[in-house]
Write a structure and sequence with these properties.
The chain is built from four helices and seven strands. The protein is an alpha+beta fold. It folds into two domains: 78 residues, Immunoglobulin-like; 96 residues, no CATH class. The chain has a seven-stranded antiparallel beta sheet with strand order 4-3-7-1-2-6-5, with no helix packed on it. Helix 1 crosses helix 3 and helix 2 crosses helix 3. It is globular, with a radius of gyration of 19 Å.
């Protein structure tokens, strides 16, 4: 199973080219986006860095950031988070029927990132072995996008996506979560 959060055990930089030794590099690929955090100097942390090299023998990844140069050092709190890219902001915009801008676009991007991570982790928990950049089928991509859209539509709501009704909801709130779980193949036994 691929863990999308990797511990960084050592790091070095030369003229802004960072090389980090990870707990493992399973799932890491060139051109994949990675979030780096927990490094001893906050300026070294970066969101959505592009991996430029992966060395499976040395368990290292490489990316560029700033113009930092420092000698190799052992790290105890660093984490590299591989970004899951099963659905995109554009996929959800098509489903919504409009293109948000400004703060709404920023929020939609956060919803898409959350839905991608959630879907990946839920499928992994259900026994599937997926790659962070390759959805397990069009059904998984659709389920992930539906979940991202549901998260976006729930903004400002107490219990589910916003409604204009003043009638209080009694009982369980119905929504698309059952369909999303069905598309993702989670909360049931995995079939071969």
């Amino acid at each position: 199973m691929i863990d999308i959060n990797k511990d960084i055990t050592a790091i070095v930089a030369t003229s802004g080219v960072f090389v980090a030794t990870l707990s493992d590099v399973d799932g890491a690929q060139v051109s994949m986006k990675v979030d780096i955090g927990g490094l001893p100097t906050p300026a070294w942390n970066v969101m959505a860095a592009t991996i430029t090299a992966v060395n499976t023998t040395l368990k290292t990844i490489t990316w560029s950031h700033g113009n930092f140069t420092f000698a190799s050092q052992t790290i105890t709190t660093g984490v590299a988070h591989l970004e899951v890219t099963w659905c995109s902001v554009e996929d959800v915009e098509v489903m919504l029927g409009f293109t948000p801008d400004g703060d709404d676009l920023t929020y939609l991007t956060t919803c898409v990132d959350a839905a991608n991570d959630w879907a990946f982790l839920r499928r992994q928990k259900a026994g599937y072995v997926d790659h962070p950049n390759i959805a397990g089928g069009s059904n998984v991509k659709l389920g992930t996008a539906l979940y991202a859209m549901a998260l976006y539509r729930e903004k400002g709501s107490v219990d589910s996506f916003a409604s204009f009704t003043d009638t209080p909801v009694v009982g369980a709130v119905m929504g698309s979560m059952g369909q999303i779980k069905k598309l993702l193949g989670v909360d049931r036994a995995q079939v071969a």
